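Hi support team,

I've been running sequence recovery on a batch of backbones for a student project. Most finish fine, but this one hangs at about 90% for roughly twenty minutes before it completes. I'm not sure whether the input is malformed or the queue is just slow. I've pasted the structure tokens below so you can try to reproduce it. Let me know if you need the job ID as well.

Thanks,
M.K.
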């Protein structure tokens, strides 16, 4: 069966580790949105590997990885990632397919990203400045350059010349020359050629042959361009619909949806976060969870688990099951809060509101649960978790209505509890057997 694995909060939930854990059961891992602003961290033994554009499945030699049309590709960043993996002993070789319809990030997109953030001043989004947003803007503006365009020299020349001239008009101080850029893109096209394919067709044939596919999301539900905390969002659909539009697959091909959820909340950049903790409590989670961006190194904002957020993610994505990560980071806390709703004036809000002003003026309503003193770090069997930790997991299941099938208790592959007796979907059985 094909499954989607995606973030149910603000990203950085630990999707990299969960995808890496499940990958042995799949033939193909496919990315459907975002760009090299994503940073999935996987620890293989003691080696830390950060994947930005390539799906985490690339670390398994039997797996083919697909990059869909919904992803924006910076060829330079992609080649650098492939070379870095090569140095670590992972050969990408022919295990990669890239959609001919994927849009490209060109160097001027990075400049535009920096410029647009500088112009927003106080209202900046907090982007990673990698040109992702401007590349998506060009896509929607119907002036983007796609992977397949690199094969048509004459058309490419016109497109690049016109785009660069438009940029030079927009950025007064810019005197960018289109010619070297054109040559560079042609060279990139040659290098990309062996991997370029009709990804939609490839996935349909893979699935029809009974070879299971894992659809890997980047960022998280609350960063989705449509369903997130707009405008403090990413430029793509990180929720379940992105699987279909970003890969050209039918919804019928998605057999199950696993949401990755951190045992508390974090967010990078600006925008509302109702349960954010300031001062020592926030620092405790940040230091304990090493909550610093894997791409930018920026400290993440930290706070308590927000059940309103996860309930919303469960509805939008149709979550069948949850992988709960970083439970160990809560070890040693005397008590733990879980937000079950917000107080907005005289009202109690239990569904995620669209209006950021409502969020800004809302106060979280907390249920306080007892913490645990016995460490959960590295625990591999559910029954070995302290009673209070089990109670915490059960409370989250009740508050969100979604069963927790995986509990992660550390960054390593082995620091994982697979709940054999959980209400998880049938596809999970295969994973539970070593
Ligand atoms: P992603 O973008 O969703 O893949 O998340 P990141 O890679 O940005 O952040 C997850 C970080 O948490 C990585 O450094 C992981 O190694 C680490 N991690 C994942 N699961 C756990 C866990 O259960 N416990 C601890 N302590 N760290 C974890």
């Amino acid at each position: 069966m094909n499954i989607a694995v995606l973030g149910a909060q603000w990203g950085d939930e630990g999707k990299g580790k969960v995808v890496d854990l499940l990958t042995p059961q799949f033939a193909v891992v496919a990315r459907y949105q975002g760009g090299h602003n994503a940073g999935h961290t996987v620890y293989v033994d003691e080696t830390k590997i950060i994947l930005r554009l390539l799906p985490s499945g690339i670390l398994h030699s039997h797996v083919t990885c697909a990059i869909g049309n919904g992803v924006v590709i910076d060829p330079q960043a992609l080649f650098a990632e492939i070379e870095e993996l090569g140095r670590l002993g992972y050969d990408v070789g022919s295990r990669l397919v890239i959609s001919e319809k994927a849009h490209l990030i060109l160097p001027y997109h990075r400049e535009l990203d920096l410029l647009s953030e500088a112009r927003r001043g106080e209202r900046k989004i907090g982007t990673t400045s990698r040109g992702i947003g401007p590349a998506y803007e060009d896509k929607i503006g119907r002036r983007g350059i796609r992977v397949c365009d690199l094969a048509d020299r004459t058309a490419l020349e016109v497109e690049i010349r016109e785009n660069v001239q438009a940029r030079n008009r927009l950025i007064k101080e810019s005197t960018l020359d289109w010619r070297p850029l054109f040559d560079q893109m042609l060279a990139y096209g040659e290098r990309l050629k062996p991997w370029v394919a009709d990804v939609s067709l490839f996935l349909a044939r893979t699935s029809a042959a009974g070879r299971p596919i894992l659809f890997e999301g980047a960022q998280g539900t609350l960063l989705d361009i449509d369903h997130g905390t707009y405008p403090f969002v990413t430029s793509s659909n990180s929720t379940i619909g992105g699987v279909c539009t970003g890969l050209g697959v039918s919804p019928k091909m998605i057999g199950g949806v696993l949401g990755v959820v951190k045992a508390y909340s974090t967010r990078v950049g600006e925008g509302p976060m109702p349960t954010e903790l300031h001062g020592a409590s926030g620092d405790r989670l940040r230091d304990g969870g090493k909550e610093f961006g894997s791409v930018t190194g920026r400290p993440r904002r930290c706070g308590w688990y927000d059940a309103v957020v996860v309930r919303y993610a469960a509805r939008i994505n149709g979550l069948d099951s949850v992988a709960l990560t970083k439970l160990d980071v809560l070890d040693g806390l005397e008590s733990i809060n879980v937000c079950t709703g917000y107080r907005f004036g005289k009202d109690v809000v239990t569904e995620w509101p669209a209006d950021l002003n409502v969020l800004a003026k809302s106060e979280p309503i907390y249920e306080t649960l007892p913490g645990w003193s016995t460490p959960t770090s590295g625990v591999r069997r559910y029954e070995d978790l302290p009673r209070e930790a089990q109670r915490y997991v059960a409370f989250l299941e009740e508050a969100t209505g979604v069963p927790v099938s995986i509990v992660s208790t550390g960054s390593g592959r082995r620091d994982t509890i697979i709940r054999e007796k959980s209400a998880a979907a049938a596809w999970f059985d295969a994973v539970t057997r070593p």
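--
Follow-up from support: It reproduced on our side and the slowdown came from queue contention, not your input. The mean pLDDT is 91. No action needed from you.
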